[in-house]
Amino acid sequence: MTAITLSHITAGYGKATVLHDVSLSVPSGSITTIIGPNGSGKSTLLKVVAGTARCSAGSVRVGGADLTTASERSRIAEHGIAYVPQLSNVFGPLTILENLEIGGATLSRRIRRQRIAEILEIYPDLAHRARARADSLSGGQRQMLAMARALMPSPRVLLLDEPSAGLSPKLLDDLFRNVRELRDRRQVTVVLVEQNAHAALPISDHGIVLVSGEVARDATAHEIAHDPAIAELYLGTGENLADGANA
Description:
The structure is a single chain. By secondary structure, the chain is an alpha/beta fold. It folds into 2 domains: 1-80 and 157-219, Rossmann fold (3-Layer(aba) Sandwich), CATH 3.40.50; 88-154, no CATH class. It has helices spanning 42-50, 72-77, 96-103, 109-122, 124-127, 139-151, 169-186, 197-200, 221-225, 228-235, 241-245, and strands spanning 2-13, 16-27, 31-35, 55-62, 65-66, 81-84, 157-161, 189-193, 206-211, 214-220. The strands form 2 sheets. It has a 6-stranded mixed β-sheet, sandwiched between helices. Helix 3 packs parallel to helix 6. The model has no long low-confidence stretch (mean pLDDT 91).
C-alpha cells in the first residue's frame, strides 16, 4: 500500500520555483530517505506534504485522502502527519514536559498524560530532565525533544528534516534505532531528508534522489546506496555510498 502520493508537484517560494513536476510514492510502513545536493528541494518537498508550503500545481494524497488544500492542523489532527523541521523545532523557554504537552494538544487530558509517560520511557535522557527548559538542552537533546514532541499524537506518517544534524555518533545511533522501532513496532511511515546518506540509507527501505528540484532516482535504498553514479554526486569518486558507510 502507498502512504504518500505526490503527483506532478510544482512548488516554491514567491516567484522562485523549487520543485518541478515532481511525482513519487512512499510505501506504507517504510522508511524512505530523500537525498540530493544542497538546494535540490528536499526540505520543500517535506513542507509540501506537511502543509507548511503550498504547491502551485499537482496533488498531495496521504492514506488515500486528497490533502492538496488541507491545512497543516488538519493534516496533524485528522490524517496523522507529524513534521519535525530542522530549525526552530522546540519551544526554548518551555520545559520538556510543557513541549510534550503542546505536542499532545489535540489529545484528551488522560491520553495526553499516558502518551507523555510512554514517550519519556522511550527517551530516558529527557525523562531525567523533564522539568528543564528546552533552551538549556544540548543540540542533540533538543533534536530528541523535537522528535518526542512530534510522536505525542501517535502519528501514522513522520516527516524528519535533517534529524542527524549536530548529533554525536551515539545519539545518531539512538535516533536511527528509534526510527527503525517506529517502523517495525508501530508501522509508522517515516520520511527522512538527510545529508548523511551513509547513515540513513542502511536503515531505509526506499530512497529518492532529488537534483535541481526533479526526481533523479527512485529505487530501493539498497540500490541507491550501491549506485556509483549517485556516489559521484556526493563523493566525486567511483565508490558507492555503502562503501562510505563502512569506511
